[in-house]
Each structure stands twice: as structure tokens, then as C-alpha cells.
Amino acid sequence: MKLLIVDDHPVMRFGVRQLVTQRWPDAVIGEASCLAQALEQVRAAEWELAVLDLSMPDTSGLEGLVRLHRAAPLTRLLVLSMHDEAAYAARALQLGAAGYLTKEHATTELVAAIERVRSGQRYISSDLAARLADLLSGEAPARAPHETLSAQEYRVLLLIAAGHGASEIAEIMHLSVKTVGTYRSRIIDKTGLANTAEMARYCSEHGLVDRGG
Q1: Which of 5, 149, 178, 200 could pair with 154 as two cysteines, CB 3.0-4.6 Å apart?
Q2: φ and ψ at residue 50, rounded to 5 degrees
Q3: What angle do CA 53, 56, 62 make, to 5 degrees?
Q4: Are residues 121 and 180 in the same domain?
Q5: Would the CA dihedral through 27, 19, 211, 118 be positive or negative?
Q6: pTM, whole model, 2 decimals?
Q7: Which residues contact 48 (CB under 8 A, 6 or more apart)?
Q8: Which of 186, 86, 97, 181 is nearest to 139 (CA)?
Q9: CATH number at residue 195
Q10: DSSP 144
Q11: Are 124 and 87 a contacting pair, CB within 8 Å?
Q12: Using one digit for the tens of pLDDT, what is the confidence trace for 50-92?
């Protein structure tokens, strides 16, 4: 197995490495402490699986996941995150993750998660499974405004909240500025957030940016 660990915390990378090598002594393991390093690694070699933290020094939220998935679509991505909201996990799966595991349960569930993802299936932390089932079945409490957005609209919202302008977002997402403007208008219509400041404040209050990855 070839596995890439993407996390900016050395202790976390060490812990993941230890768990993996105990189960797969012959595993080839690479490490990256930021998204830029991870992108270099996946462009230089093929990796079967990447264990990915969402909070990187050079990206925020789910954008790193999207960019890594685009750069290496055949690499299975297992998110290892501090974020324990079911809706956030659902977004990660929607945007390309093959699994979502909270760091709280890494010690007990990481090996099982890797085995499941390697087999071509999806994995989600046991503590999130019931809440996600309710969310997908429509039995969860009323959705927050950001949960009504499409995947692309959600990405635009997070990028706006992170301080990116329309031209930057267009470049990051490989869209036209006009399309970004369309997504922004839809965000305003669906959430009632009228400007950049309101979007940034909303994302901060709801833990959507610069909050555990």
C-alpha cells in the first residue's frame, strides 16, 4: 500500500504513521505538511490513499480536499478532521472524500476506515453515522442556510469568507468571473447574506472557516 499523510501537525502525522505501519508493515508512506506539498507528492507519484486534514496553513476548509481530488482523482481520500458536524462530513463526501473520520476516533477507527476505503467503499465515523442518516433522510432538524447550497455555491461561499475576490475565486475554481457572480447571487438568494462581511461573519459563527480540519 502507498499512503500519503497530509497534516500540518508532526505529532498527528507520527500517530497515523504508527497505526498504519502496525497494520501494514510494508506500507510505503509519504508525508506532507501543507497542501502545496501534497499536490507535489501526488503529481510526482501515484498514491493509493491519502489521509487528509482539512485545516492546512495554505488553504481553508474543504477547498484543499477539492484541489487534491482534482489533482489525483484515482487516489482515495480519507478525511481526518476535528469537525464533527454531520452536514460538514456530508459536504466532504459530496466533494470527493471516500471517507470521513473524526480525530477523536482516529486511534480506534483509523485502521478500519482505511481498510473500508481501500476496498472501494465509503467510511464515516461511528459518532456521525446516525446523525448523517437523519440528515440524508430529512429527519434532522431544519437545515441551516448554508446547507441549502449546492456544492459549487458552498465552495464559493467559503472562498468569499476566506477573503478571496471574484477573480481569485474564478481562477481557483476554473470558472469565469461571470459564473462566480451567478453563484454569489444564488448564495444571497438562498441565505439572505447580503454582502461579503455578512458571509464572512456567518461562516465564522458556524465554524465553516478556520475551524479544525
Answers
A1: 149
A2: -130, 130
A3: 65
A4: no
A5: positive
A6: 0.69
A7: 1, 2, 3, 75, 76, 118
A8: 86
A9: 1.10.10.10
A10: P
A11: no
A12: 999 988 888 867 888 989 999 999 999 999 988 777 777 888 8
Residue with cell 469537525: 83
CA distance 55 to 62: 8
- Residue 194 CB contacts under 8 Å (≥ 6 apart), including other chains: 188
Query: If 0-12 CB within 10 Å is exposed, 13-18 middle and 19+ buried, where does residue 101 land?
Result: buried
User: How many residues appear in the chain?
Assistant: 213
Residue that the C-alpha cell 501537525 belongs to: 9
Distance CA 213, CA 211 (A): 7
5 touches 13 (CB < 8 A): yes
Specify whether the CB–CB gap between 95 and 102 falls below 8 A: no
Confidence of residue 205 (pLDDT cuts 50, 70, 90): confident
Burial class of residue 127, CB neighbours in 10 A (0-12, 13-18, 19+)? middle
For residue 82, the domain's CATH number is 3.40.50.2300
Place of cell 429527519: 139
> Each residue of 118-176: pLDDT tens digit?
999 999 887 777 777 766 665 555 567 888 888 889 999 999 998 999 999 999 998 99
